[in-house]
Design a protein that fits this description.
The complex is a heterodimer of chains A (116) and B (113). Chain A is mostly beta strands. Helices cover 0% and strands 52% of the residues of chain A. In chain B, strands 2, 4, 5, 9, 10 and 11 form a 6-stranded mixed sheet that branches. A 5-stranded antiparallel sheet of chain B has the order 1-3-8-7-6, with no helix packed on it. In chain B, a hairpin with a 5-residue loop joins β6 and β7. Chain B is globular. The chains are: A mainly beta (116), B mainly beta (113). Chains A and B meet through β5 and β9 of A and β4, β5 and β10 of B.
Chain lengths: 116, 113
């Protein structure tokens, strides 16, 4: 199956700093990538949808200036958490689709962000 | 808008017993339905998917699910639970290929020996 790689898997940062998380599709071209956030013991909440070469579409309630998403190529999307605060601590998961008819999304391994 | 409801946030079974995880969906158009499994601090792994072909879908690790339009359900089953099945299970729906999946709240499956 298609592989999506996410890096870093864990990151700890100080409050006020910015953190970048990368999401790569390793063996297919991802026409669309999605970023989800997962709080402990909870479901995945869609943050934004990004298409290569265009601005991301954010879900209601997600601050686009805090969570910067860039989808510069068909294999790479990045999520930058700017001026991170402890409440931004969470598990962030990216996913990608190749646009095939099944609608299946391929998920990265997730990134655990801890803001001190 | 589409949505998914997973009945039962926690299901406990004995090893060798039947596993039944319930999922009901709401969609105004024919849906794509998925079951994913998540182990602690990991991403999601696809168990199976329904994409308007056969209503009984077989997935990995002995899991299967049946799409029942009349009941708007897509319940996940496995005849005999293994200890390694203990994990978090998510049902998800989308209405168009290439769009985001909407997830249910998840069901934690515990398996006791």
């Amino acid at each position: 199956g298609a592989v999506v790689s996410q890096h870093p898997s864990r990151v700890i940062c100080k409050s006020g700093t910015s953190v970048k998380i990368e999401c790569r599709s390793l063996d297919f071209q991802a026409t669309t990538m999605f970023w989800y956030r997962q709080f402990p013991k909870q479901s995945l909440m869609l943050m934004a949808t990004s298409n290569e070469g265009s601005k991301a579409t954010y879900e209601q309630g997600v601050e686009k200036d805090k969570f910067l998403i860039n989808h510069a190529s068909l294999t790479l999307s990045t999520l930058t958490v700017t001026s991170a605060h402890p409440e931004d601590s969470s598990f962030y998961i990216c996913s990608a689709t190749s646009g095939d008819y099944t609608g299946e999304l391929f998920f990265g391994e997730g990134s655990r962000l801890t803001v001190l | 808008a589409q949505s998914v409801t997973q009945l039962g946030s926690h299901v406990s079974v004995s090893e060798g017993a039947l596993v039944l995880l319930r999922c009901n969906y709401s969609s105004s158009v024919p849906p794509y339905l998925f079951w994913y499994v998540q182990y602690p601090n990991q991403g999601l792994q696809l168990l199976l998917k329904y994409t308007s072909a056969a209503t009984l879908v077989k997935g990995i690790n002995g899991f299967e699910a049946e799409f029942k339009k009349s009941e708007t359900s897509f319940h996940l089953t496995k005849p005999s639970a293994h200890m390694s099945d203990a994990a978090e299970y998510f049902c998800a729906v989308s209405v168009q290929a290439g769009t985001a999946l909407i997830f249910g709240k998840g069901t934690t499956l515990s398996v006791s020996s």
